[in-house]
Request: fold
Amino acid sequence: MERLRIIPALHRATHRVGLFLQKRTPHASQGEAHLLAHLHEHHGEATVAELHSAWAHRRSTLTDMLDRLERRGLVRRTPSEQDRRSVRIRVTAKGSRLAAGVHAELVALEAQLIGRAGDRAVRSFATVAEDIAGTAEELASAEGTRARPRRRAAS
Reply:
């Protein structure tokens, strides 16, 4: 039997980052924290399509996260000025403070990692992580012709 060599370590690392964020930024879920950090790096705004592309969440999951952030006054949706079919997500002043804090925590975590592993190893890991994402997407797309089980409506 062939043993898994990469996926368990990747899952464990992702889970640990989630626990780190939960402890350091308790006012946002892991997904919300990553979205806020992304928005912070992109001058406080992005389209829904850009967020979907960056994080590869299901659109319904992304919509749920954005709904929660909007209800808490951290982001607002506005029609794009270039294409009214597109929606821009903008961080509010309240959200900007949280986004900056989340971003700072992640920058500090990465700095520790780079100090421990070295810049070259981190670049190599980032390449492998992108390859994992691309390979998983390709395999999922190739098998996309199979019917997915549908959720049953609650009775």
